[in-house]
Every structure is written in C-alpha cells, then in structure tokens.
Write a structure and sequence with these properties.
Layout: E1 8-11, H1 25-42, H2 50-71, H3 77-87, H4 94-111, H5 118-127, E2 131-136, H6 142-152, E3 160-163, H7 174-184, E4 191-195, H8 198-207, E5 211-215, E6 230-232, H9 238-248
Parallel strand pairs: 1-2, 1-4, 2-3, 4-5, 5-6
Length: about 250
C-alpha cells in the first residue's frame, strides 16, 4: 500500500487564505484607477485628465482580461501597466512601478479579511513538520500579493508561492498541479490541496492523486462535494483533519 501520509499542504489564495467576498469587479477597478491616478499625480507624472486616464487604462485591462479567458492563460498585470504607461510616456523607477501596482490593488486589499486565528493555524501546521505552499490563479503580480501576505503576517509560513501568470497554463490544468508538486518537493499522494472551487481546485486535485479539501465559501454554495474529498468551514480544522488522515494511513 502506497504511503499517503500528508507531508505538504497547498492552498488556493482567494476565498481560501484571504476572503474577499462578493466584490463588484467594476467598482474595484474604478477605485483602482482613482488611487493609481492620485499616485501618479503625487510624483509629478503628467497623465492628463482623470477621465481620459481611467477610460484608457480600464479599456486595456478589460481587453487583456477577456483575451486571457479566451486563451485560458493568465497575464502579469504589472507588465501590462508598464506597457500602458509607456504609451502615455510615464517614466517610473522599478519601485515606483511596484507602488503603482499596489495602488491598483488597494481597493481589493481594503475589503480583504482573514480568519482571526490563521497565524496560529499556519504555525501549528509548520510546527508539525509540514511544507506549506500557495497555488493560485491570478494576474496580480507576486510582488503585490506577497506584500499583502506580509502585511497580514502570514508570508513567512510558506515554502513555495506559485501564481498562474508565471506559467503557460492555470488551474484546473493538470500540468500546474504537477508543477506545484515538483516545486513543493512531495509526491502527489502526500499533498493536501485546500481550495474553494470544486471545478478548479477539488476535482483536478483529486484527479492528480492529492488529498482535496473544500473550504466553505460563497463560490461553492450548493456545489456537490466529490467522493474522497473533505470539506471544512474554517482553516483551523486542518490540523485535526490531517492528523486523522495520517493516522488512518498508518
């Protein structure tokens, strides 16, 4: 019988580690345009009227987002912002580009929340000897996401952070699960995958031979949980669940 004890836990990001809720994407982008415009003005960049800046920026972001869904591959929004800026003759240092991306992300950060005991939960998992990683579908640049994770006090718990825009494929593609397993350094049968979407997290993780765990969220209301998968309401349930699975595989 193959060893199926859990040695690593991979997490999805949105609605799993960080909760954003039912956000209005259009409203978030409008606010992002406002914050980024104010930032550019504050550092002396001549970006024209806000109306023109907002229309131009949002048009390019929406077009690129639609195209990414057509080709089923995510893009790096930081690279896109640089491309948009170049057409508007915006000249920034690398740090200023990172600061600009942070301003676009600010509206999402403002509505974000984490479980009150998440630091204790992740600490308990690390203390037990588990490797921890993040595997998320996203076009948000890693510098922005990891700055947010650092501000939340949870960045240092993770051994590997993997974002789909860095790959030529994204969840539920089997190749990204294989790449994640290789990066975390464990066989699939020794990896638990925790996510909030049945179609993009649970089913492909199950197919990959991992231990899939669905975290209750608005994204999976009334979704059927596959056999051989588990469900939790809070991340704090993970240490006990992992102990149970490992005891049963002994």
């Amino acid at each position: 019988m193959a060893d199926t004890k859990i040695e690593a836990v991979l997490f999805d990001l949105g609605e799993t580690l960080i909760n954003f809720g039912r956000a209005d994407t259009n409203e978030l982008m409008q606010k992002g345009a406002e914050f980024s415009y104010e930032f550019l003005e504050s550092i002396g960049q001549a970006v024209g009227s806000f109306k023109s800046y907002r229309r131009y920026s949002l048009l390019h972001l929406k077009i690129r987002y639609i195209f990414s869904n057509i080709i089923d591959r995510d893009f790096d929004v930081l690279a896109l912002l640089k491309k948009i800026g170049a057409k508007k003759c915006v000249k920034l240092s690398e740090q200023q580009w990172l600061d600009l991306a942070w301003q676009w992300y600010k509206p999402l950060r403002q509505i974000a929340s984490i479980e009150t005991d998440i630091i204790q939960t992740l600490g308990a998992l690390k203390k037990s000897g588990l490797k921890l990683g993040i595997l998320s579908n996203t076009f948000i640049n890693k510098c922005t996401l990891e700055k947010h994770l650092a501000k939340l006090g949870i960045l240092d718990f993770f051994d590997e952070l993997m974002y789909s825009y860095e790959f030529r494929f994204r969840k539920p593609d089997a190749r990204i699960f294989a790449a994640a397993a290789e990066r975390i350094g464990c066989p699939n049968s020794n990896i638990m995958f925790v996510g909030d979407r049945v179609n993009k997290d649970i089913l492909p993780a199950l197919k990959a031979g991992m231990h899939p765990v669905l975290k209750t969220a608005y994204t999976n209301v009334e979704k059927k949980l596959p056999r051989s998968a588990w469900q939790i309401d809070k991340l704090c349930e993970l240490p006990q669940l992992i102990e149970k699975i490992n005891n049963e595989s002994s």
